[in-house]
Specification:
heterotetramer, A mainly alpha (about 350), B alpha/beta (about 500), C alpha/beta (about 300), A: mainly alpha, ABC transporter involved in vitamin B12 uptake, BtuC, 14 helices, about 5% strand, globular, C: about 300 residues, alpha/beta, six-stranded parallel sheet, six-stranded mixed sheet, about 20% strand, elongated, binds adenosine-5'-triphosphate, binds magnesium ion
């Protein structure tokens, strides 16, 4: 019997040790996967800096990159919510265009001009909620619903401006499109567009990681039928995420309108959905749903912006920009897969 | 019986730095049923997956089949070596038919074209032998858990191999199907097959096992020959202590039984459940027994609003309640443990912590929405300690746990709710003896505290061990009820007679 | 000339680099720029008719420190603020093919006139009487101008009835083919079709040939290489005219004007309109197309 | 003991009856879901016939519809293979363009001109196999890989033609693009494009439903790990399906080249992937993989073509075409969901 007792003690202690090692290893693993594509982003930045003879890491250029990443970041943040539930939103580009058109049209009315910003946001929210309702209540596949609204909302955006460009050089709140927030007078300032994008990321992070709703979103993406059985109102979660995606598309529309002072129902936002989805997936969020983080999305959006900016900076021709962009996207994910190989489950 | 058909020596397996197996030996002879036992997470399934070629072992060990050293490369290698396996996790393609699943990977074809008809005919005999009540052309998606398990068994048997591995084949089978399977297994043993049998149901091991090998923490802790196979010896090897009082039933059904808490009246779904009524009182443990496909799970789903009902009503503590969704059931105080923990229960990519807290997040939240992370961690730690869940910590994804530990995580979620009515669908499926006795004592304690409990189980000894009375379903109807009297204990025979519709013959 | 400021790099932002028109434009720009400075660095990008993308490209040009931006504006008015930003960074901006508000100069084909001569040809051929279709395209200003010019002519002739002008042929052969297939089924009698560019005209001709419809006069605007071939091809007699543009020359002019401004020479007028000439089956032999070697 | 035997026989016989009834029910269900969108297609056709004052159901117009549906049908057939495995192929439009460019460029060489058709097919197959290899061997997500090649192959397509339109009015085999197969001389003829599309559908059906490989494709889509455990070479199946998708995109490229006598690396095939995916999903194939049929895809492709043709035929303006198309797509799926509600389990 004593021998038995000893035998019992031994495995117990080793498992405790093992558990500690396990935890350490897990922390490493989580750190690595949280870092995600950051190394790729850094490599790209340094590469472009060298190749562009020092033009990349200048205050002005970094400001431009941030500003260019802003709209896509906002769209991708909304897309992250949607993809986390295992869905997809192809309509963000069209909703962006419709919201910008609605906002600009309103901004030209003398009395109501100041309301253009909320109007754009509400337009986006409205379309998003309709998407969500169709998906959640009629149980239609997200791809088809948002593909349908990609087309239909594009048509509405064109109707709003009677198929012309709406232009308003004196649009209120234009500063959000072209102004900068001065942090240190004369030395450090950040474009308002980037400030908005960062705020969107922060709010998204809060919702996803610090609220009950956030856990529910991950749960619906992880296992929808289990979520339903666990008492989660899946339909409400779905309407929420598509609503957020629409709202952020509306915000993106407002940002573009303020940046361009103009919008065109046909041209604005064409195939923005692909960039947004790419940012989300580059950021490590899984299409299956339930896995991913908003910080990854931010890095993904920055990679796309750095790539566009850097290739022009070093004077690569338009055609080769296509080829290189495509290869870099595949390469980045391959690198990521390789990097995680040791640590991830198969 | 002199030369072993299978020798595994010094087999180890490491998952990303975690040792799941440490130099395990296993020797199996032709014509024996070799039971492999061990607690949840001991490494049984891992060892078998190495044998079937699903996992590659760490370098160093050796596998000999009929004396020849072999390297098993992938599932095809396992099959070529004469090994077939029923995996613990069902591994069927739900979108294919029964016949297609059974032939998957070795389809029949004639002049390049698929021979669907021949395949359908080819699986007929084995399905008949297993007593399957579905056709070869049925889509697996339309089968119940138990029926799917029969398909897995049919697939393994159909492969006609020398070594047959069965990793918990009876978890979804009820007594009748299990008996039929046992007869088949004995027959295969007589034909000279070596059968490796994994189960957490002790009675099955006593009934079948010729030899028992026990694993603990990835190590071999001992082998027992037929005469030594007794509950005390096996359990002591497995858990390192005696588990004396296995079924625990301290609550007094007569004294403790309170008012009726849950009354389901005339529930039907127009398909599988045809007008069922039952009542559960406070402090009572009621069993719901029946053959597979009898409609027990469906009835539970109707009660909690997981599927739409065509008729019927519910009363909770005497008052009528309208429940249309599982969420409403939870709000009313009715919690349900699903029989299909992977598909309908757990969130495999989420942490155990989130899995345990999911149903009470809103209740715990600060300001109505903000997560209370301290409370959640406390609750998870308490669950880990209380049910001795084995995982590094509560932060690991639930998908990485062994089956039994996953079950405990899922159960913890329901216990966190502290419901009035607890419906447990196969609560100890895939759970080891130690954990089983823990779960039984939890059930017992809840009953003592006044919870009304309905236990759906296909494990008759379990039902008899823990329930105060047993309602039996047959083909969508309530076939009758078996009650424990002062001098008349519940018996398997009474329950089986009702479940199969032969009560009049026995009487 | 004693250049006060050397031309070191140029940024070019054009509609879509898949269009031979813009390819010819970029070649013209390169030719003229290399003449000024053999080591000049030229970055040419297509904005795919996305205004936001074009503004982004201009930002990138500013960051890259170019001296001159040549652009085909996505929208004549809306691109104004971006142009101001570039000018504030000391960059000269010249618009090509479409006028842009605030640009230092604009060099463009007279698209209204191009639409007019192309449609006048139809009116003349029909003797002022017939059912015609305006096959519209993407609503960019060049297309809008061409349709305006065309409608100007048609509206002056009460005998001409415009059956439809609200379908988008997407500016491509495929779009033209699809839209024309619909038109030909919808209208049993069509006397002439004005397509807003050459690819659409060729697609329209393919549709008519497939359906064995003959006697339809098809005209267009551009004078692209494929319309040249079609105008010489006896199998496509229905394609009869195209109002030509000269992108190579347009770009050369634009660079010349831009370099002039860099050196302090203001042009007389900020907008330079290049007239369009009608290429027909009769004069196509003498036409010097976009791809002919112009570097002498 | 005998009583036992008799008792055993009884439930067995009732369950056999039950099973037979179940099978009958399943057959009904399968018939209904195989019929799929056919009712929607018919409603659309009849609607357009009435609204266009009898112009829709004319031999000539039906020929046009079939012809317009042909290329999308071919692409959607390949996409069906891919989506059945749970994947997606966004690169078909770009591969189509690159194949058409390669074919046309070759067709202008005097000696090798006749080889343009196989060259186009091989180009498509090559790109498809590369996609498949990246997905199967490096285990990269299909969305990202094919998004990357959407961009990179587009660049290559432009490079092939030095960024201009390549045209060849005397391309060999031009008949496949514009000719018709005469069945009854003077009375009945079918455009060659449609003949090819139908052949593609037939071959796809044979492979998917009548070969071992077909079962493996469905198995991989239904449960990838089960397929792997059953010894199916999942990597080979994946390379095959992406190869097929590429090959069919190459065929689509050849069809377009023969139809238009020209190709443009940038413009040709833009956003064809969306139409192909829409056809597949309208046809009832599930994004999750493992469920769907090639006949559904054919019906889906016809719906899209009828919609485009019909809206032009009844003179709906371009803008409203967008709106209506989007709504019809959503409406069709909603109708389908409603129709199936009675017969399917939730
Ligand atoms: N794919 C995997 N990745 C990581 N760890 C794994 C994997 N499979 C098993 N493990 C770990 O290996 C150990 C042994 O697991 P295994 O499934 O073999 O246990 P088991 O004895 O079959 O348990 P149960 O009775 O619960 O089925 C467990 O700690 C488990 O968490
Ligand atoms: N087509 C199906 N799709 C998904 N799940 C199904 C399907 N058919 C049955 N099931 C599941 O199988 C089970 C059906 O079991 P049923 O209620 O008929 O009998 P039971 O007595 O619970 O038997 P079992 O012991 O097999 O669970 C339920 O869990 C049900 O959800
Ligand atoms: Mg196991
Ligand atoms: Mg059940």
């Amino acid at each position: 019997m004593p021998s038995n007792g000893a035998a019992e003690a031994k495995p117990a202690s080793t498992t405790t040790n093992g558990a500690a090692a396990e935890t350490r290893r897990q922390r490493m693993r989580m750190l690595i996967s949280a870092l995600g594509m950051l190394p790729v982003l850094l490599i790209l930045c340094i590469g472009f800096h060298v190749l562009s003879e020092g033009r990349f890491f200048t205050g002005q250029n970094l400001g431009i990159v941030l500003q260019q990443a802003a709209v896509n970041t906002v769209l991708a943040a909304g897309m992250t919510f949607v993809i986390l539930t295992g869905g997809i939103d192809l309509s963000v580009g069209s909703i962006l265009a419709a919201s910008a058109m609605a906002g600009l049209t309103l901004s030209k009315l003398p009395e109501l001009g100041m309301l253009w910003l909320p109007a754009a946001l509400l337009t986006g929210l409205g379309f998003g909620v309709v998407n969500g309702a169709l998906i959640a209540l009629l149980r239609l596949p997200p791809f088809i619903v948002t593909l349908g609204s990609l087309t239909a909302v594009r048509g509405l955006a064109r109707l709003l401006g009677a198929d012309t460009t709406v232009f308003n050089p004196s649009i209120p709140y234009a500063f959000i499109g072209n102004g900068s927030l001065t942090l240190v007078p004369g030395a450090l300032s950040i474009p308002w567009l980037s400030v908005i994008a960062l705020l969107v990321i922060l709010v998204s992070w809060l919702v996803l990681r610090r609220t009950v709703l956030g856990v529910h979103i991950y749960a619906v993406g992880g296992n929808e039928s289990a979520a339903r059985l666990a008492g989660i109102k899946v339909w409400a979660v779905l309407i929420f995420v598509y609503g957020v995606s629409g709202l952020f598309a509306g915000l993106g529309g407002a940002m573009q309108a303020a940046r361009l002072y103009a919008a065109n129902g046909l041209q604005l936002g064409q195939s923005y959905e692909l960039d947004a989805i790419t940012a989300v997936i580059l950021g490590g969020t899984s299409f299956v749903g339930g896995i991913g983080s908003i910080w990854g999305t931010l890095v993904g959006a920055l990679i796309i912006a750095v790539l566009s900016n850097g290739l022009i900076l070093i004077g690569v021709s338009d055609i080769w920009q296509y080829v290189i962009k495509g290869l870099v996207i595949i390469g980045a994910v391959a690198l990521d897969r390789y990097r995680l190989q040791g640590s991830a489950r198969t | 019986m002199n030369d072993p058909i299978l020798e595994m020596r010094g087999v180890s397996k490491t998952f990303f730095g975690i040792k799941a197996l440490r130099a395990v030996d296993l020797i199996v002879y032709a014509g024996e049923i070799h039971a492999l036992m061990g607690e949840n997470g001991a490494g049984k399934s891992t060892l078998m997956k190495i044998l079937s070629g699903a996992y590659r072992p760490d370098p160093g060990g050796e596998i000999r089949i009929e004396g020849k050293a072999v390297r098993i490369e992938g599932p095809l290698g396992g099959r070529a070596a004469g090994i077939s396996i029923i995996y613990q996790e069902l591994s069927l393609a739900p979108n294919l038919t029964v016949a297609e699943n059974i032939y998957l990977g070795r389809e029949m074809s004639r002049s390049g074209l698929l021979a669907r008809g021949a395949m359908r005919e080819g699986v007929g005999p084995i399905l008949t032998r297993l007593g399957a009540d579905f056709l070869p052309s049925t889509l697996v998606a339309h089968l119940s858990m138990g029926q799917r398990q029969l398909v897995e068994i049919a697939r393994a048997l159909h492969a006609r191999s020398k070594i047959l591995i069965m990793d918990e084949p009876t978890t979804s089978l009820s007594a009748a199907e299990s008996e039929r399977l046992f007869a088949l297994i004995r027959q295969l043993r007589a034909e000279g097959l070596a059968i490796i049998y994994i189960s957490h149901r002790m009675d099955e091991v006593y009934a079948l096992g010729d030899r028992v090998t026990v694993l603990r923490d990835g190590r071999l802790v001992g082998s027992l020959d037929k005469p030594e196979i007794r509950a005390d010896t096996i359990v002591r090897l497995m858990v390192g202590r005696d588990v004396s009082s296995f079924y625990k039933k301290d609550h007094d059904p007569e004294a403790g039984r309170g008012h009726p808490v849950l009354a389901a009246i005339d529930m039907a779904d127009g398909q599988r459940v045809k007008g069922c009524s039952l009542t559960v009182h406070a402090g009572e443990v009621v069993g719901l027994a029946g053959l597979i496909g009898a409609g027990r799970t469906e009835l539970a789903h109707l009660i909690i609003g997981a599927s739409p009902k065509t008729s019927g009503r519910l009363e909770l503590e005497g008052r009528p309640v309208e429940i249309r969704t599982p969420g409403e059931a939870l709000e009313a105080g009715i919690a349900y443990l699903t029989e299909d923990r992977k598909a309908l229960g757990l969130f495999l990519d989420m942490s155990c912590l989130d899995n345990i807290n999911l149903a009470v997040l809103a209740r715990d939240a600060k300001l109505g929405w903000v997560l209370d992370r301290d409370k959640a961690r406390e609750r998870a730690d308490r669950a880990f300690a209380g049910l001795s869940i084995r995982a590094a910590n509560a932060g690991v994804p639930a998908g990485g746990l062994s089956g039994g530990n996953q079950q405990k995580v899922l159960l913890s979620r329901l216990l966190a709710i502290a419901p009035k009515v607890l419906i447990l669908d196969e609560p100890t499926r895939g759970v080891d003896v130690g954990a089983k006795s823990e779960i039984y004592s939890i059930i017992d304690n809840l009953a003592k505290a006044g919870t009304a409990i309905l236990v759906i189980s296909s494990d008759l000894p379990e039902i008899i061990g823990i329930c105060d009375r047993v309602v039996v379903m047959r083909a969508g109807h309530i076939a009758g009820e078996v009650t424990r009297g002062p001098n008349s204990p519940l018996t398997q025979e009474d329950i089986m007679a009702l479940a199969t519709g032969m009560e009049h013959l026995d009487a | 000339p004693s250049s006060a400021k050397e031309l070191k790099s140029i940024g070019v932002s054009l509609g879509s680099m898949g269009n031979p028109f813009f390819v010819a434009l970029s070649k013209g720009a390169e030719f003229e720029a290399k003449k000024t400075n053999p080591n000049v660095k030229i970055t040419t990008v297509g904005f795919e008719y996305d205004l936001g993308k074009q503004v982004t490209q201009i930002d990138n040009f500013i960051a890259a420190g170019v001296d001159l931006i040549l652009l085909n504006p996505g929208d004549p008015k809306a691109i104004g603020p971006a142009i101001k930003k570039a000018q504030a960074a000391g960059i000269v901006v010249v618009a090509v093919d479409t006028a842009a508000e605030g640009a230092d100069a604009t060099v463009t084909t007279n698209n209204v006139q191009a639409g007019e001569i192309s449609c006048q040809y139809i009116v003349d051929k029909l003797g002022g009487k017939g059912d015609v279709i305006i096959e519209n395209g993407p609503q960019v200003s060049a297309v809008i101008d061409r349709v305006v010019g065309c409608k100007n002519v048609f509206s002056k002739n009460p005998g001409i009835k415009v059956l439809s002008s609200d379908q988008d042929g997407k500016g491509s052969r495929e779009g033209g083919l699809t839209v024309a297939q619909g038109y030909l089924t919808r209208f049993p009698k069509i006397d002439a079709i004005f397509a807003i560019n050459d690819p659409q005209a060729i697609g329209t001709d393919l549709a008519a040939r497939q359906q064995n419809r003959s006697g339809i006069i098809i005209t267009a605007v551009d004078g692209a290489p494929d319309i040249e071939a079609a105008l010489k091809d006896p199998q496509s007699p229905q394609i009869q005219a195209s109002a030509s543009q000269d992108p190579f020359f347009m770009a050369r002019r634009a660079v010349q004007v831009g370099v002039g401004i860099l050196n302090g020479q203001k042009p007389a007028s900020t907008v330079e309109l290049l007239p369009s000439k009608l290429v027909t089956r009769d004069n196509v032999a003498e036409y010097k197309g976009w791809t002919s070697d112009r570097s002498q």
